[in-house]
Design goal:
It is globular and about 60 Å long. It has a domain of about 35 residues. The longest helix is centred in the middle third of the chain and has 26 residues. The chain has 15 helices and no strands. Helix content is about 65%, strand content about 0%. With about 300 residues, it is mostly helical. Helix 2 runs parallel beside helix 7, helix 6 crosses helix 10 and helix 8 crosses helix 9.
Length: about 300
């Protein structure tokens, strides 16, 4: 094999091996629904201002132990990245794993996180945007026209905006951590001290945070496109996206893999679909069965 392609092929083999450890979509949705039931119980306790001992009677939804048990220890160990040890954000390794391999679980976790934080509409990213809109007449006129055209009130718009901006933040944060290893200097510090210095943890987490913040600010806070606060079809952010029945499981499974797959894997499925004259979900099933051998480009 040409040395140029060797790293890509190794990454492809690693990705393929990880996909084999991913649980099927019907089990994924069953787990999501189970955790959402815990979330509803948690929210009920919050609304009732229940004492702390009531919270201790059941596991928190999507907590590390619950997720780790569901995905399995083999997957958990195989999916570990060195940078997870440096991320300070609570459950960062769970968020990043789910973003990469179980995007439906990632979305459900985000739904719960945002609903539990009932003050999110007063968070800085949202308030900064509100200030921008209110202080610039042209933006304010477009904002008023937008809410009128989509038949929503201002509170609905800003709640919707809050969900979108923080969804974008978490996506960018996890994306950064998954693809960015700690610096060589940080690795040396860890080897020298036998542990990760707290300052390096702070630095790495700040890098990820500031990267995500820069993407969010440039696209949401400072953008003049006020439609950033709503879905492309103008509907309020859908908080009921989790399927309650197990219909169209194959298609749902493919959508899940399609999102997290790198371009080389998508290209592979498209070639397979063309070769066999089948749909992309069917191509994925053939690929998963091991009955298809990809063409590997070799050097002359």
């Amino acid at each position: 094999m040409n040395d140029y392609y060797a790293p890509y092929y190794e990454e492809y083999k690693k990705r393929s091996a990880m996909l084999e450890l991913v649980r099927p979509a019907d089990e994924v949705y069953a787990f999501i629904n189970e955790q959402l039931e815990l979330h509803e119980r948690y929210m009920k306790l919050m609304r009732e201002n229940a004492p702390d001992e009531e919270y201790e009677k059941f596991d928190s939804p999507f907590w590390r132990d619950n997720v780790r048990k569901f995905v399995g220890e083999e997957f958990w160990q195989a999916s570990h990245l060195e940078q997870y040890d440096y991320a300070l954000r609570t459950n960062a390794d769970v968020w990043c794993r789910m973003y990469e391999y179980y995007y439906d679980i990632f979305r459900a976790m985000l739904k719960c996180e945002l609903e539990e934080n009932d003050r999110i509409v007063n968070a800085p990213l949202v308030l900064d945007r509100q200030h921008f809109v209110e202080s610039w007449d042209a933006a304010n006129i477009r904002f008023l026209k937008y809410v009128a055209d989509h038949n929503i009130n201002k509170d609905e718009y800003w709640q919707n905006y809050a969900y979108h901006v923080y969804t974008k933040y978490y996506v960018e944060y996890c994306s950064y951590v998954n693809r960015t290893s700690p610096s060589k200097e940080m690795v040396k510090n860890r080897e020298r001290e036998g542990e990760i210095p707290s300052l390096d943890r702070i630095h790495y987490n700040n890098w990820a945070h500031e990267y995500a913040l820069e993407i969010v600010n440039s696209q949401y806070t400072n953008s003049r496109d006020l439609a950033k606060g709503a879905n492309s079809d103008g509907m309020i952010w859908d908080k009921s996206f989790i399927p309650k029945k197990e219909e169209n499981i194959k298609w749902a499974a493919f959508n899940q893999y399609e999102f997290m797959a790198d371009p080389r894997f998508v290209d592979l499925l498209e070639r397979l679909a063309a070769d066999k004259g089948v749909t992309l979900p069917e191509a994925y099933e053939i690929y998963k069965s091991g009955k298809y051998t990809p063409i590997i480009i070799s050097g002359s």
